[in-house]
Each structure stands twice: as C-alpha cells, then as structure tokens.
Amino acid sequence: MALEVKGLTAGYGPVTVLRGVDFEARAGQVTCLMGRNGAGKTTLLKAIMGLVELAEGSVRLGGVDLQGLPAHRIPCHGLAWVPQGRRLFGPLTVAENLEVGGLTRGNRAEVREHVLTLFPRLRERLAQPAATLSGGEQQMLAIGRALCLEPKVLLLDEPTEGLQPSMIALIRDAVLRLRAEGVAVVLVEQRVEAVLKMADRVAFMAHGRVEEMVEARRLEPGARQFLDYVGV
C-alpha cells in the first residue's frame, strides 16, 4: 500500500510553504526527506496528517482520498506521526502512554506486546512516568505509542535528534524491522550516515518542493545532493 501526494500546495494563512509537492512512500520501504531548514519537510508531514489545510492537491493512501477528512480521523486510515519534541504525556506512565496510543484500535494486547518486543527497554519501565525517561527512551515511547495505532505508514520527524549513538542505533534497528514488516516509513532526517543506513529512497526538498528523488544505494556520503540540499 502506497501513500501518494500529488500537487500538494499548503501553508499557514497567507504564507505558502509547499508548492506543488509530488511524493510517494511505498510499503516496506524507508523514504527519507532531506533539505535545509525551511524547505517544508515538517509542513509536508503535517499536511499529510491533516494538520495544515491544503490549498491544492491530494493525499491518498491505498487509493483512499484523505483530503478534507478531520485530522482526528486520519489515523484510523493507517497513518501515524511522531513529531519533533515527542509530545508525550509526561505525568503518565509508559504503560498509560501506550494505552492512550491504542485507544483508536481498542488497545489490543498483541499490539502492545509487539511494541514491547521492538523496544524491550520500555517493558522495564512500564510503571515509570514518561517525563523521567531519558531522551532516547522517550523517543522509543513516542514511536511505540504511534505503533499502537497499527499504522500502514509511519511518519517520523527527526527521530535521532539529540540522541547518543547507542540510542540512534536502537532507533535505526527498530525502523529497519518495521520496514521488514511491510510498514511504509517516512523519515525526516539530517544525519547523512543515518540516512544511508536506513533509507531506500531519499527525497530532497528545497523551496517547498521535492526537487529530486534518488535511490539511496546510489548515494555516497559526499554526494552532490547532500551538499546542494542539506549543506553538509
């Protein structure tokens, strides 16, 4: 099942951020969005989730048109989003955060077990308030909570930002396992090394458009695209 974005134009009030974006994320693949600050990466994820009103274009998942649906209904169609900053319920325990994430799907025990298998560290901290977790553990919980929706497409916005290498490796392994399970993962990431270890395809964004889509296997750490679009 593919997520298809066609001719998407959107922004905030009079400010247009996205200008005719065409983009596709395929099942069982990791598609990375890269670009300088202000290129429109986060706005694209928000527009897909119905949090930014579309001026033009369409968002479809498996042939179902998501345009115009209330934002709270879009996850029911198989989309989940982990924003920057994680936005956990800090006073709630790990178990309670996962329960909130599973409300839409009825909190099935096997789904929670899958999350805890993916992130064993969370099992050890089920009774611990989310606010007391380390940054890496909070990121695991944010992803785990999103996975309780049983998404077909998972949107991750800078999941490795501010994390130590060992935690980045754990997040990377989880993403690759989700890919193997057939989930379409859309990843906003600025770390070139992380991108090359996870991505199947890289979409380079500039000025509110996807300017270039490249198979990740064709890229090297010093590839021209990284210099042109990311400035590394």
UniProtKB/TrEMBL annotation:
The keyword Nucleotide-binding applies. GO terms for molecular function: ATP binding; ATP hydrolysis activity; branched-chain amino acid transmembrane transporter activity. Keywords: Amino-acid transport, ATP-binding, Nucleotide-binding, Transport. GO terms for biological process: L-amino acid transport. Residues 3-232 form the ABC transporter domain. It comes from the Bacteria. InterPro entries: AAA+_ATPase, ABC_transporter-like_ATP-bd, ABC_transporter-like_CS, BCAA_Transport_ATP-bd_LivF, P-loop_NTPase. Belongs to the ABC transporter superfamily. This is ABC transporter ATP-binding protein. The lineage of its organism: Bacteria, Pseudomonadati, Pseudomonadota, Alphaproteobacteria, Rhodobacterales.
